[in-house]
Amino acid sequence: MTTMQLESDLRDSAVSSDVAVIGAPIDIGGNCRGADLGPAAIRHAGLEDALSEAGVSVTDVGDVPVSETGTEPVDAIQSTTAAIADRVAETLQQGARPLVLGGDHSIAIGTLRGTARNAKSGVIWFDAHGDYNTPTTSPSGNFHGMPLAAAHGHRDFADADWSIAPSIPEENTVLVGLRSLDEQERDALRRADVTAYTMVDIDDRGISEIVDEAIDIAASGTDGVHVSLDLDWLDPRAAPGVGTPVPGGATEREAHLALERLAERDADDDVLRSMDVVEVNPLLDDENTTAEAATDLIASAFGNRII
């Protein structure tokens, strides 16, 4: 896609609402096909109605173009995430909050670049995995396990176009709900100046306390917080349709409480800058259960309440 074409697309998709929904249908960052169908599944599960019921004005600007050029997945990922970054940055410039629907978690390379363009952004990463590998440390070589390392400019990404450090500072990055890390990834996280909470921490201290701390850390001294929600953060019984399920995850109620706390803080302090929701795979799902869970959790993040 040329720069002129992209600029034309951005003008055509100008928004004047609270939230702009952006689809990012890509699945080549993982080793399991089907996550590219996630944006359509989430929309089909009633996303726009759920946000409207939460009192949010929403515009769906469609999907970013997914590049199929090149023989290596990295070429397509670089091109596609660059388009995502431009769409996210333009949406913020127009005064709306971007809600990016994945796709596998490699899309976060683009959402993080976009939200940190001309700004300093904190990050809360709800995920079973650390996503802190690089091409030389990853056992699988899958890019959906690398976006946070890329954002911090570590190792293989130090000179890459998609590295955005220091606009995503390590000290304002918080991982919540970890329970599956590769050995070298674990070492890298220990060396990094990030805050990481495992499921053991959540079991021990409770989700409310953990999320309150996470928001404090991520928001401190920044222009807002990007929230990345991987549906494999939930226990597979609540979200079966993901490519890399890990037992022992957050319950559906814990997940809703976490995002409700975020919405409460956002109502007071305007902390939520942008959000992506990833790894919904309809080919692995049970009657769209995971897409429906994603839709409900998004609504909670943007202020939906029982009363």
Automatic annotation (TrEMBL):
Entry-linked InterPro entries: Arginase, Ureohydrolase, Ureohydrolase_dom_sf, Ureohydrolase_Mn_BS
UniProt-annotated binding residues for Mn(2+) 2: 232
Gene Ontology molecular-function annotations: arginase activity; manganese ion binding
GO terms (BP aspect): arginine metabolic process; urea cycle
Protein EC: 3.5.3.1
Reaction catalysis annotation: L-arginine + H2O = urea + L-ornithine
Keyword Hydrolase applies: yes
Binding site for Mn(2+) 1: 105, 127, 129, 131, 230
SUPFAM superfamilies: Arginase/deacetylase (SSF52768)
UniProt-listed Pfam families: Arginase (PF00491)
CC cofactor note: Binds 2 manganese ions per subunit.
Pathway: Nitrogen metabolism; urea cycle; L-ornithine and urea from L-arginine: step 1/1
Keywords: Arginine metabolism, Hydrolase, Manganese, Metal-binding
A GO cellular component entry from the record: cytoplasm
Protein name as annotated: Arginase
Species in which this protein is naturally found: Haloterrigena turkmenica (strain ATCC 51198 / DSM 5511 / JCM 9101 / NCIMB 13204 / VKM B-1734 / 4k) (Halococcus turkmenicus)
